[in-house]
Every structure is written in C-alpha cells, then in structure tokens.
C-alpha cells in the first residue's frame, strides 16, 4: 500500500468544519480591515525565496523543497507567502495603482522540518500584507486584525509579544557588539548558534535551546542601539495598540526567522500549544519590495498557522454539516419516486441524502438515525398511490403528510417552522 508522505497530512471530513470556521473567520476579519484576497502560485523560482527570506535562515539553509525543472531551472515549493505576494505586487506593477494595497492569502506552505505536533512539512497559513504605508498605524492595523481574528475564534491563553528591530543601520551598529559578546560565550552555544555568530548573530537571541538562552541573557541589547527615528516609530505603534485596546508584552529577544523584517516585529503565542507555541507572527519589511526589484514600498504583514489554530479549537466544536432530510424510497414504485424527490429537494437547495442500498423502511430509518438526519421523507408504494408522502421528525417521531405535487413548498415550510 502506498502511504502519504511523512509530515504531510490529510484533513478528513470530520476536521474540515473547524478548518472552514478558521478560514471563514480569517476572511471575514481581513475584509473588515480592508484587505483583498490574492492567490499566488505554490511554486516559484528558487532565487525568489533565497533572496527575500535570507540565505542564512533556517528556511533557506535547510527547509526548502527545491527541485530542478525539466529545463534545468531551480524551482521551490513556497515555504511562506510573503515572497510570492511581493513578486506579484511588483510584476503586476501594483505600485502604480492607488496605495495602500492590502492583500490577504491562504493556502499550503512547504518546509522540510522534523514532523511533530504542530510542525508539518505541508502546513497551511493565512496571511496579510499591507503595501505602501510607512505610518505606524498600519502596523497597528495588521496586529489588531490578527488579534481580533484569534480572539473571535476564542483561542485560549494568547500573548502578543512585540519588539523593535530598528532600521538596517541600527542593526549594523549593534551587530559588532553582539558578535563580540557571542564569541566570548561560544562554548555555551549550540552548534547552530555557533555557526550563526558571524552569519546571522541576531538569530542567536531567538534560539530556543535553554543553554543558549542562559548564555545570551546578559548580551548587549539592540534596544540600546536604536536610532531616535526607530524609537519614535515603535513608540507610536505601542501607543496605537493602547488606543485600540490590544494587550501586548515587550520581548527584546524576538527577532524572527526571516531576514526581511525591520522595525516592528511581533509574534502571538499560546501556552495551550506545548512546544510549538507560536500561532502566528509578522512584522514590518520596508526594504523587501526594493530588494526584489520593485520601487521603494513600505510594507507590513503577518502569517498564522492554521494547523496550530485548529489544534486549539475544542474537539467538540459542533458545526452543522449533517444533511437535514433523509429520503426513504422503497418498493417498486416508491423507490423511483424517492429518487426523484431526492433530486427535487437538492435542486431546491435542501440538504438531502439517502442510502441506495436500503430496500425497506426499517433499514432506511436506521440509516437516517445513523446519519443524524433530523427528518425523513417516507415514500413507499402506498404513498405513490395516494400521492401523499410522510414527513417524519426523527426526534419527536411526529409524522405529517405532504403532497408529492407540492413537495418542495411543503417541506421548505416544515423545515422553516422546525
Ligand atoms: P516556528 O518558530 O514555530 O518554527 P516560524 O518562525 O518558522 O515558526 P513563521 O515562518 O513565522 O514561523 O510562520 C508563521 C506561522 O506559521 C507560525 O507561527 C506557525 O503557526 C506556522 N508554521 C510555521 N512553520 C510550520 C510548520 N512546519 N508546521 C505547521 N505550522 C507552521
Ligand atoms: Mg520555523
């Protein structure tokens, strides 16, 4: 038997109602905040991700699904949604349209990671990107959207952490101090972090390995190297969050695993999630559009993981997916009449099912119960003769006659009054 790929999951019919709830909630909030849906491809040329995410990040170093196309070009399954969205923004010259341009997307992402609870190789993200506004209120807007949609889903024990990464020049000024400090601490750092001392020292601050955390506890802080302009921007973001009533906590270690972020960076975590506790994250990326060949365009966005959101919704989440009417057609004449009524109900937009294997009223009723149908429409040979079918409430067992001629209007009325 051929099995699915490790870390690549099926989402079965029992689970899709909660996925739909998440997707629909996210979509509704995004629209409320003035974002429009964009759908970008699942694969792109490899250089797009390498250049935007950054060569010495986890994603580009070891997590990308990269393959050679038949013409020899290198392609990659998207590990995140920002790079493709920015490429589309540039390629379709959206900067020439009235700004700001605000997009949202949802779909599968691919990263070659060690699969575990909340960490898959094919996973799903919902994300937003807001192009063209440098104003700190644009940062507040995307953070508020993220917070509202997570709160609307009543996800438990959420914390919003936020940090200021400053401008590139601020980080350049800070980097030598950090590198000097990390070199002193080298023996206490994990292998990954040792390699990063020169290549990507800020990422060392974000390492989850306990010894690395202790070793970097008294490292010099980026906050102390920030320019006035960077402080002012961040100050306005925090004020804005206070204004709209979004609670946050400052985390000076939060640097995120993608190189394109500057100024505001944020992450929402939940203590109910276990080891992989990040629900979603984002930040400002004012230089990415230019890096990828577009015009200077300030931008800010976030992405949330749908698997992790689904894990946090109660198992018992009842979403009505059950059909409402079961059609029990049996007998030489009742069976075809039932089949025709079934089609009539569906065409009228009423959820209706049957079981073609059942040939008696008894087995039909058993199936109706098993499928959780609220009503059964009974059509045997007698009903065909009289032209009156029986409409049975499966809970109360109350039965009513409905004419086969005016079936749809009568059933609709009964469903409405139930
Ligand atoms: P983590 O610290 O958990 O590795 P990350 O910094 O790599 O997260 P981002 O690239 O910012 O994550 O992606 C945003 C969100 O997407 C994460 O907060 C998480 O909910 C989800 N996510 C990221 N990678 C995976 C994965 N491999 N499987 C499932 N969800 C993921
Ligand atoms: Mg990761």
Which descriptors would you attach to this protein?
elongated; eight-stranded mixed beta sheet; 21% strand; BirA Bifunctional Protein, domain 2; 2 domains; 16 strands; alpha+beta; binds magnesium ion; Rossmann fold; 418 residues; binds adenosine-5'-triphosphate
Offer a quick outline of the entry.
This protein is of the alpha+beta class and 418 residues long.
Structure, described:
The protein is α+β, with helices and mostly antiparallel strands and 418 residues long. The chain contains 16 helices and 16 strands. It has two domains: 16-167 and 227-312, BirA Bifunctional Protein, domain 2, CATH 3.30.930; 325-417, Anticodon-binding domain (Rossmann fold, 3-Layer(aba) Sandwich), CATH 3.40.50.800. The protein has helices at 16-32, 46-53, 58-63, 82-91, 136-152, 168-184, 191-199, 201-204, 210-215, 228-244, 288-291, 306-312, 334-347, 361-370, 381-386, 407-417; strands at 36-37, 43-45, 65-68, 74-77, 101-110, 122-131, 158-164, 249-250, 262-270, 278-284, 299-305, 325-329, 352-353, 375-379, 388-393, 399-403. The strands form three sheets. Strands 1-5-6-11-10-9-7-8 form an eight-stranded mixed β-sheet. Strands 13-12-14-15-16 form a five-stranded mixed β-sheet, sandwiched between helices. A three-stranded antiparallel β-sheet has the order 2-4-3. α1 runs antiparallel to α5 (136-152). The chain is elongated. The chain starts with 15 loop residues before the first helix and ends with a helix. 38% of the residues are buried. The mean pLDDT is 94. Bound molecules: adenosine-5'-triphosphate (ATP) and magnesium ion (MG). Adenosine-5'-triphosphate binds at residues 80, 111, 113, 118-120, 123, 125, 257, 276, 278-281, 303-305, 307-308.
């Amino acid at each position: 038997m051929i099995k699915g790929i490790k870390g690549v999951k099926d989402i079965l019919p029992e689970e899709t109602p909660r996925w739909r709830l998440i997707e629909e909630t996210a979509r509704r909030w995004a629209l409320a905040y003035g974002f429009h849906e964009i759908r970008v491809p699942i694969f792109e040329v490899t250089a797009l991700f390498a250049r935007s995410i950054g060569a010495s990040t986890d994603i580009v170093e070891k997590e990308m699904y990269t393959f050679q196309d038949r013409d020899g070009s290198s392609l990659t399954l998207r590990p995140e949604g920002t790079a493709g969205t920015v490429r589309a923004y540039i390629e379709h010259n959206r900067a020439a349209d009235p700004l700001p341009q605000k997009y949202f997307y949802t779909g599968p992402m691919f990263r070659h990671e060690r699969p575990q609870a909340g960490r898959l190789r094919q996973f799903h993200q919902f994300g937003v990107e807001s192009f063209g506004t440098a104003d700190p209120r644009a940062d507040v807007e995307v953070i508020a959207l993220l917070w509202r949609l997570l709160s609307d889903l009543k996800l438990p024990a959420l914390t919003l952490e936020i940090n200021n990464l400053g401008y590139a020049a601020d980080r350049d000024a800070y980097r030598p101090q950090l590198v000097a400090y990390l070199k002193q601490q080298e023996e206490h750092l994990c292998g990954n972090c040792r390699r990063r001392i020169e290549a990507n020292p800020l990422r060392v601050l974000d390492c989850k390995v306990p010894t690395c955390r202790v070793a970097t506890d008294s490292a010099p802080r980026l906050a102390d190297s920030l320019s006035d302009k960077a402080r002012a921007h961040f100050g306005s973001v925090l004020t804005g969050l206070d204004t709209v009533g979004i609670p946050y906590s400052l985390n000076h270690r939060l640097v995120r695993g993608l190189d394109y972020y500057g100024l505001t960076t944020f992450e929402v975590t939940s203590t109910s999630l276990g080891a992989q506790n990040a629900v979603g994250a984002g930040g400002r990326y004012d230089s990415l559009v230019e890096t990828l060949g577009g015009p200077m365009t300030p931008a800010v966005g976030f992405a949330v993981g749908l698997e992790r959101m689904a894990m946090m919704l109660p198992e018992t989440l009842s979403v009505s997916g059950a059909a409402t009417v079961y059609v029990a057609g049996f007998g030489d004449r009742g069976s075809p009449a039932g089949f025709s009524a079934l089609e009539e109900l569906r065409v009228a937009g009423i959820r209706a099912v049957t079981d073609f294997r059942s040939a008696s009223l008894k087995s039909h009723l058993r199936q109706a119960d098993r499928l959780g149908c609220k009503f059964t429409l009974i059509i045997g040979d007698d009903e065909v003769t009289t032209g009156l079918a029986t409409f049975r409430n499966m809970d109360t067992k109350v039965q009513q006659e409905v004419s086969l001629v005016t079936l749809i209007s009568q059933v609709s009325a009964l469903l409405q009054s139930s």
